[in-house]
Amino acid sequence: MEAITFLIDFILHVDKHLEAFVVAYGMWVYALLFLIVFVETGVVVMPFLPGDSLLFIVGALCGAGLMDFGLACSVLLVAAILGDQCNYTIGRYIGPKVFQWENSRWFNRRAFDQAHAFYERYGGITIVLARFMPFIRTFAPFVAGVAAMGRGKFTAYNVGGAVLWVMGICTAGYFFGNLPWVKLHLDKIIWGLILVPGLIALWGAWRGTRQGTAPAPAP
């Protein structure tokens, strides 16, 4: 229970915890950053770890001179790329085992074929956009692996999405994270970085469900 309480407090006050860690342990903060981002993107059961808010705070700490911007971004990029590759590989490994359940109630061949077709057609942009959506960011590469999206195509969009995600949010934090207004409302900004993309993802999923269950038009 204490671990859960600490995790929630860390997510909501990542700025204070990360700054304290930098002061106490110095260069070890880069190892911590790698671990958090790799686990958040690479382990499908850990979608609740901080992502966007963490990158913004890292940029702000770099802007304040507490961390090195180039080194931080490099570590985060490697962690994000390797995390997605790990998640995709897990999906590719599990996928063939799932195919053996074709005659069971746990496997829907039609759903798999639809997912495969979707990822072959729209998988690239899905992987890129998912970077900016909590929870979706964790599950998208896993589903891409299960749906047997081509590894070369996945890797290209994985790298491109990671660059946009890490560099974009860290740079925003670097230039704007230490402005007085931003520091005053940082807790609200963190909540926004958590809730807004999540609500957009939920709305998109609801829309997709509604369209999928809508009755076909009469001939």
Give a nutshell description of this structure.
The protein has 10 helices and no strands. The chain is an all-alpha fold.
Please describe the structure with a list of short key phrases separated by commas or semicolons:
219 residues; mainly alpha; 10 helices; 79% helix; elongated; transmembrane helix; membrane; VTT_dom; Membrane-associated protein
Sheet with the most strands? Answer: none
Rg from alpha-carbon coordinates: 19 Å
Structural class: mainly alpha
First-residue to last-residue Cα separation: 58 Å
Fraction of residues in helix: over 70%
Helical segment count: 10
Number of strands: 0
The averaged pLDDT comes out at: 79
Outline = elongated
| Number of self-contained structural domains | 1
Unreliable sequence segments: 213-219
Order of helices and strands: HHHHHHHHHH
User: What proportion of the residues form beta strands (DSSP E)?
Assistant: under 5%
Can you describe this structure?
- The model is unreliable at 213-219 (pLDDT under 50).
- The protein is elongated.
- It has helices at 2-12, 14-25, 28-42, 52-63, 69-99, 109-130, 136-146, 151-176, 180-184, 186-213.
- It has one domain (2-200).
- Helix 1 (2-12) crosses helix 2 (14-25) and helix 5 runs antiparallel to helix 8 (151-176).
- It has 10 helices and no strands.
- With 219 residues, the chain is an all-alpha fold.
- It is a multi-pass membrane protein.
- It comes from Simplicispira metamorpha.
